[in-house]
């Protein structure tokens, strides 16, 4: 890993909010250029970046910003990036107290929402859904260390899918009168 990636990861994990903020801005610019080999250390930096966010609004903004990082990664490397971020969460899950678990579950929700947004954009193609399910099964859901977060991930994923289905059915119901006319 390059010294700039190490420095970036360290700055993301800084206790100084101004250093973390600048580092996150740099990450947004550098992430498309980073190799999958650097993702693990960068995702640990992102973990601590979020760890130090205090206050509901700051946490919500940081959570959404972290979830949007996925869009900056080369599509060929998105799975590696997502796997790295989720594996970091699983790795550190047992160290979290109840309140931080809730905080990080908000992040998990936003990360999953970003993934399902990609599925939605791809029209929920069977192949894309199968790839996502295979990814989850082979990575996060297959980790013996993080059984508690695995259950939470399952529940969060289920909730997001249900929300998506409700949105899709509401959309269908709102255009149904127009379909009946034709």
Beta content comes to under 5%
Encode the helix/strand succession as letters: HHHHHHHH
Cα end-to-end separation: 60 Å
Q: What is the helical fraction, as a range of percent?
A: over 70%
Radius of gyration: 18 Å
**Secondary-structure class:** mainly alpha
The count of β-strands is: 0
Arithmetic mean of pLDDT: 81
How many individual helices? 8
User: Uncertain regions: pLDDT < 50 for 5+ in a row?
Assistant: none
Main pleated sheet: none
Give the CA-based shape: globular
Q: How is this structure best described in words?
A:
With 182 residues, the chain is mainly alpha-helical. Helix 1 runs parallel beside helix 3. Helix content is 75%, strand content 0%. It starts with a helix and ends with a helix. The longest helix is centred in the C-terminal third of the chain and has 35 residues, at 147-181. The chain has eight helices and no strands.
What's the layout of helices and strands?
Elements: H1 3-12, H2 17-30, H3 39-51, H4 56-68, H5 78-92, H6 98-121, H7 126-138, H8 147-181
Helix pairs in contact: 1-2, 1-3, 3-5, 4-6, 6-8
